[in-house]
Automatic annotation (TrEMBL):
Residues 26-43 have a biased composition (Low complexity). It comes from the Eukaryota. Residues 3-152 form the Phosphatidylserine Lipase ABHD16 N-terminal domain. GO terms for biological process: monoacylglycerol catabolic process; phosphatidylserine catabolic process. This is Phosphatidylserine lipase ABHD16A. It is a multi-pass membrane protein.
Amino acid sequence: MAKLLSCVLGPRLYKIYRERDSERAPSGVPETPTSVTTPPSSSWDTYYQPRALEKHADSILALASVFWSISYYSSPFAFFYLYRKGYLSLSKVVPFSHYAGTLLLLLAGVACLRGIGRWTNPQYRQFITILEATHRNQSAENKRQLANYNFDFKSWPVDFHWEEPSSRKESRGGPSRQGVALLRPEPLHRGTADTLLNRVKKLPCQITSYLVAHTLGRRMLYPGSVYLLQKALMPMLLQGQARLVEECNGRRAKLLACDGNEIDTMFVDRRGTAESQGQKLVICCEGNAGFYEVGCVSTPLEAGYSVLGWNHPGFAGSTGVPFPQNEANAMDVVVQFAIHRLGFQPQDIIIYAWSIGGFTATWAAMSYPDISAVILDASFDDLVPLALKVMPDSWRGLVTRTVRQHLNLNNAEQLCRYQGPVLLIRRTKDEIITTTVPEDIMSNRGNDLLLKLLQYRYPRVMAEEGLRVVRQWLEASSQLEEASIYSRWEVEEDWCLSVLRSYQAEHGPDFPWTVGEDMSADGRRQLALFLAQKYLHNFEATHCTPLPAQNFQIPWHL
C-alpha cells in the first residue's frame, strides 16, 4: 500500500538513460543497505514507456494543466466579462463552486488511476524505489543510480545549499536570505525631499509600475518562464538533456539559492581529457528564452572546455520568477557550487553569456573579481533603451520607471566594476538589441557597452579623438571596412602594446588608467582603435544564430 501511495504521489518519469560504463560501481565495493540494483542497460535504453492506464491518465492531467494555465493568463478578462454579464452574484457563484469541486474530485480520481498504472509498471516501481532511497540516504551510489532517470525536477533531492561553503562569510560576507547585493539605481529626481506628501503622490505610479512589472513586463522580458512555451518546448528540452547526459557524461544537480529557489544545473567535466581547455570551467548564462538543454552551452563544449549550464528561475526545472534579484541569487549559488563542490578555483572560471544572460554574467564578474574572464555575446549595456523601443512613446515615463525599479538590467554599470579580461561579441545583423533596424549597426546596444567600458578603463585615451575614431570603426559592418579604417590611421600594434605594458609596470593593473594623458591626438587614436579591436569581435549573424566554436576565444589581456 505504501508503494502504491508513492506511485500516486510520485513525479512524472520521462526517460531512463543508458547506464554509462564509467559510472558502474566497482564489483568489489559492497552496496549500502539503501542502494538499489539497477537492471541491465540493454533493456532500459529508451524513453520511459508508460502502461495504457498511466498514459491516458497523464494525458488528461496534462490537458487540465494547460487549460488551467490558459485560464490563469486570461482570468482578468474572464472576470471582467462575468462581471458585466452579472455572473458574479452569489446565486451564480455557488453552483459554479459545486461544478469546480466535482471537477477537482474527478481529477483526483484520474491521478489515482495514474498511480495504479505506475504501480503495475516494474520500471516505475524501480525508479520510485531508487528515488525514496536517495531521499533517505544521499550516498554516492544512490545518486549515481538516480542520475540514470529524467523525471519531474521538483522531486530531485537538493545537491548543494547556499549556506554550505564555510569560508564565504570569512571571505566576502555571504548573502542573507533577502538576497545578494545589487547596484541600486539613483533616484529619478535627485535633491527632492522624501516627505510623506511626496511618497503619497508617488504611490499610484509605484503601484502601476509594480503591476506592469509582475504581469506583462516580466513575461515579455523572460518569455521562457511562460508555462505554455515550456510545454511546447518539452520534447526538445528532453532530447537536449539526453544528449548532454548520454553523449557528454553530463551530471545534473539541484542548487538551493538564498531566496529558496531551486536552480537546475548541468555539469560536463572535461578535466580528465588530454585537452588543456578542459581544466577551465565555462559557466554559461542563457538568454531570455534559452535553456541549458538547447542553449549556448554547445559552443564551449565543442571548444573542449568543462561547462556548467543553469536555467533561470522559473525556467524548466528551476523554480521562482526571473526578476533581477532572483537572477543574481541564482548566479551566486551557481558560482559557489563551481568553487566549493566542483573544485574549480576562481582563476579557472570563465563566465560566458548570451543576450540577456549578460546581466548575471556581469553581476558575477563584479561580485567575484578573481574569475578568469568574461565573454558577452550579443549583449547590451542597459535595458531601458530596448524597452522603450518596443513600447508606445506615450508610455516612456512608465516604462523607464518600471525598468529602473523592478527590471533594472544595468550590464555596463556592473561590468565596469570588473578588472579582468573582457571580450564582447557583436552580431552585425542583430535584430533584437538594435533600437532601429538590424541594418543600422550603430543602433546595436553592444556598441554602447563597449564605449562605456573603454571610457571607464581608459578615460584619457577615449577623449574626443579616441571616441570619434572608435565610433567610425564601429560603423564598419564587414571585416574589409574594419581593416580599411584600421590601416587608414596606421595603427602600430607593437607601439600600442609597449605603451600599455610600460604603464601597467609603473602604475599597476587596476582600472581606470590615465594612459594617454600626455599623448598626441594621433597616439590616442591609435590606442583607442587598438583597444576597441581587442575588446570587441564582430560575428556576421543574427541574434539567435549559434556561435561557432572557433569564435569562442579567450579575451585579450596584457
